[in-house]
Amino acid sequence: MTSVMTLSRALTAATTALLVASAVACAPPEQKSSGGETESGVNAAEATSAQDFGGLEGLVEAAKAEGELNVIALPPDWANYGAIITAFSDKYGIKVNSAQPDASSQDEINAATQQKGRSTAPDVFDLGQSVALANTSMFAPYKVETFDDIPAAFKDADGTWVNDYGGYMSIGFDSSKVPAVTNVNDLLKPEYQGKVALNGDPTQAGAAFSGVLMVALSQGGSADDIAPGVEFFRKLKEAGNFLPVDPTPATIESGQTPVVIDWNYTNASETKKLPSWQVLVPPQSAVAGYYYQAINKDAPHPAAARLWQEFLYSDEGQNLYAQGGVRPVRADNMLADGTIDEAVAAALPVVDGPVTVPTPEQTEAASKYLAENWAAAVG
């Protein structure tokens, strides 16, 4: 109980933040459906709440008629998405097509652009902050039934985007292959040669962006100065310690990537399969963030996309997120209502000390610096 509330304060205090994975997929030139009319005469692609379908039952009926949902960049081990997808599909009898699970946030946007008008285009997005806020023109405003439960700092007032879950940046490591990591500077030691991987490219992926920010903080930088983080990775590469491999559960379990900088919940999921895998959230350079959930305004399955949002922000969906080691955005309200799984909530990580969550402006400035300097540092 306390752990959820502490994490809530840490994340809320710095307002919103974000970061995530995404995806791309080649698609045949099929045409997307235009979406059927709702009970109130509104096209499904223009519906801004379940009331436009005559209520949740009407939305369910419209979504079932579409029969499919396209998601992208949702690894099964990330935030419990494997279980979430299965639960949604089983509950509503809707087939979920999951494309490119290990892709980046930018890949999600690219896929939507490239596949616009096709039946394979993404219906929904799960994005990091910088990518999400740079592409709001691609989102369809929608307010789920629990919209008022979500703190104002974690949503757009019109429902164009809503934060869904949060966590901390961390270092995961296989204690059977490398010495225990106690702080960021350990990673420069000879014992970690060719062993340190970052989850993605920080110019495209939210997790990698936050990883560089975490490192920057450990080197005296800040959310306003990410340069020390880039310099650290330059030194890491120069020492031969930086491993230019995008880590996945397979690379971790095979031993290819014995040290991984990634979100705590993604790293923590590996401890269930690899007992020697440990997770460190550096207490003096803690970075927290929320991901952004949004509907593609050109979704080929607009009703199913809206039902997916309703499911994610329902008590059932939020508890499934919590089971994945992330803090669901409605955690405080659910705690007060007694609707959150308290055993799961109590197990969520807590950091005692300052926690950094970059503002949209800080993220924009840091993204610009990374675009201009990252490739030269690690290329």
Automatic annotation (TrEMBL):
Per its UniProt record, what Gene3D superfamilies does this chain match?
A: Periplasmic binding protein-like II
- Cellular component per GO, a single term: outer membrane-bounded periplasmic space
* Swiss-Prot/TrEMBL GO biological process terms: thiamine transport
Q: Which residues form the signal peptide?
A: 1-27
Record GO terms (molecular function): thiamine binding; thiamine pyrophosphate binding
Name the source's superkingdom. Bacteria
* Residue stretches of biased makeup (Polar residues): 99-118
Alphabetized UniProt keyword annotations: Signal
Segments carrying the region annotation (Disordered) are 99-121
The answer to whether the entry has keyword Signal is: yes
Entry protein name: Extracellular solute-binding protein
What organism is listed for this UniProt entry?
Mycolicibacterium aurum
